Amino acid sequence: MAELVAKSPCAGLLPISEGGVTVSEVDPGPITAIAPFRGKEKTLNTALTRAHGLGWPAPGQSDAAGDARIQWFGHSHALLMGVAPKASLANHAALTDQGDAWAVVRIDGKGARDVLARLTPLDLRPAAFPVGATARSELQHMQAAITRVGRDAFQVMVFRSMAQTLVHDLQVALRAVAARG
Amino acid sequence: MRIPCPLCGSRDIREFDYMGHAQALDRPEPEAGAQAWDDYVHNRDNPAGPTRDLWFHGLGCGAWLVVDRDTVSHEITAAALARDVKGGAA
């Protein structure tokens, strides 16, 4: 039997830091995509609240309760992260294990927004994108999910296969922002 | 150009793909006849003014939208989820 070694998506690539902004890898724990069955949105919301203390997120919203986090992830689609889903959810929604499928990084520091502004067309001003807000958008041609996790902190997710490209593009943006001082 | 996605809010055009005229939502019955199918598959108007298109928010929420826009002024007057327009939620 082969001995398999777990390797995180950004292993050997992160952390990087430039001009007071740091990019580090996040271990999100289990990730499960939840897609409610037609007409089951209400019962799913109840089941989610009962099982994990989190309701179904409105578009562009994320929430956390203990280790469990829920993040809106597109049309009729959310991610449950940090905990394995309770079996009861399967009566109301299609559950897909997406653990290890996403590269998850955190961008921290005063210039974090300026770094992202070079890569995505999203409006990231605090009034338009407060803490807890999440969006699916473009990050240098990659399909990304961007969440504000603090005043100067963002979580960015892209497909695991694009981890190296993500780190490269972030590195270039970090340098450019730092160079402007 | 920006499109007001009903889920995501106003978003840059680069997040969307154009998917043709919204006529594609009105699929004729199989026996509707050659003319109806010819119109459905091939024949499109080229209006100077209001038109209705399908747009795919592929670099966003993944929804298909029905967008009303004006080809002369480029104004976008409405955007709705194709699922709602088509009544596909049932």
Automatic annotation (TrEMBL), chain A:
Species this chain originates from: Lutimaribacter saemankumensis
InterPro entries: SoxG, TrmE/GcvT-like
Origin superkingdom: Bacteria
UniProt cross-references to Pfam families, sorted A to Z: SoxG
Gene3D superfamilies, sorted: Probable tRNA modification gtpase trme, domain 1
Record protein name field: Sarcosine oxidase subunit gamma
SUPFAM superfamilies: Folate-binding domain (SSF103025)
UniProtKB/TrEMBL annotation, chain B:
Pfam family, one: SoxD
GO molecular function term, any single one: sarcosine oxidase activity
GO process terms (BP): tetrahydrofolate metabolic process
Name of this chain's protein: Sarcosine oxidase subunit delta
